[in-house]
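User: Quick sanity check before I run a bigger batch. Here is a single chain. Can you write out its predicted 3D structure?
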Amino acid sequence: MKLTTAQALVRWLLAQRSETFDGGEVPLFPGVFAIFGHGNVLGLGTALEEHRNELPVWRGHTEQGMALAAVGYAKATHRRQVGVVTSSIGPGALNMVTAAGVAHANRLPLLLLPGDTFVSRAPDPVLQQAEPFHDGTATVNDAFRAVSRYFDRITRPEQLLATLPQVARVLTDPADSGPVTLALPQDVQAESYDFPDALFEPVTHRPPRTRPDRRSLTAAAATLRAAQRPLLVLGGGVRYSGAGAQALEFAQRHGIPVTETTAGRTLVPHEHELYAGPLGITGSTAANVLAAEADVVFAVGTRLQDFTTASWTVFSPQMRLVSLNAARFDAVKHGALAVVGDASAGLADLGAQLESWRADPQWTTRAAGERARWDAHIDSLRSASSEIPSYAQVVGVVNELSEPRDYVMTASGGLPGELIGGWRGSGEVSMDVEYGFSCMGYELSGAWGAAMAHDGGLVTTLLGDGSYLMLNSDLFSAAFAGHPFVAVVCDNDGYAVIARLQQGQGGKPFNNFYPDCHTGHDEPPRVDFARHAESMGCAAFEAHSLAEVREAYARARSVARTTRRPAVVVVRTLPAAWTEAGAWWEVGVPEHLTGRAELDAAKPRQVRYLRR
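Assistant: Done. Predicted structure follows.
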């Protein structure tokens, strides 16, 4: 079949299928996000137009925003579907590097197709070409190498035959999942080749469920049987394996208290008797208290990032760590007893070895008691008397009015701590907190992607004024495309959570809150977020009190659904009221600041390496 490189790539995308948790099939690549330029409009753009009725193409308004939307789509489909993003060369391509970092850090699949300069070099230097003086083979797309699980530059059409199986492998493999970058020189996109028909035969990708090695299972079972105070930590790998219910059954059979990481949040029903709450700095004192006393921690599907481990001070140095993970890279961290395999298969095999073993009943009952104390604390924050609502109160309203199949999300600043620590879920997979890369702006772009993918419920994203100002163009992208969600914008006059870190460690207020920033005006301008959102095609509501937040959010939900466009709720929030989990986080503190004493006191408690 004689096709251009671009035509062959598009036909291959259409042939790829993905198996869902229930055994059904969906397109592996459900759509393409595109901003066309001279580097992709005639090659890949023409090929996509030929299949416009089979493969939807969504027009974005920033390349970074499109790629973040694709990341949000992958998260909402539990890595069973992959967003494709194409850009022109130069700035369009480089705009996607940040999103590649988000996908890489969060282990989420993403296919990036940036245009590239001419392989022939005949017209060099071309528009938007950066010319490295030291390397004639390099282009700006080489910047993707550090944040790609797989990178290739297609310099001959027939290279697709060797490359595309590797693309599918990375995007669908539980251990290697992450961003793939295929740099596409614009002359090669238009070159033709006689491709074999077999390349375009339909393929259904079924993520492998690798079973752990028997010896590691035996060692893990022996470690757990010897435990007096075991703790089960559930991460994102449990979600992507579809093993949430299985993990809870494992915990119940063996009487092990359960906590969640950021990526694993909402896997456990809040009222479950074994649920100790979320773990770490943005988690709960309940989980952190149990973590400090646990003698064995069984971590499933998590890389144990510093916010989860309180910079490795949340655990006792004497505890034993057992890590079940699809990726050996993550399983071996901190000297853990590594059990490499799929979460579902590993829990089943380990449960068979443990047989009827159960933890001490007194330890088992600790979870509910500690969580009840944390719940009382959250209740007190939500019911506090204040003219201006706090983050905790806004989250409480969204939690109260949300439905079981809804999807809530945030990314950076202070809201992750409020949402992770304060949300009370029903046990369905209903939360996306991008705190692997903590990318400001993901809250709106990712919500666009999640709204495309999420079936049944309504997507609500919570964000601060700082994040809104970074990537608000995707409000128009979603409004134009007809993808509804609700955005709750908490306006507190600047980068409040960083100001909190700055001043909490003894630094002077500087360049975070607007009054502490340099300006040439006595009265600097303020953003009217509601009017701005309306100008982007959204419905908008303002709220000044907690009662108004409740009314505005309820109306926004209704309007978003009926008009199929985003609805934005703008609320002034307290700039210095936070949900505290009582954990420490390591940052670099100069010796002359007061926070240095806390750092010096905490460092000896930091677990450096655990015995096997």
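The first helix runs from residue 5 to 15.

User: Great, the batch can go ahead then.
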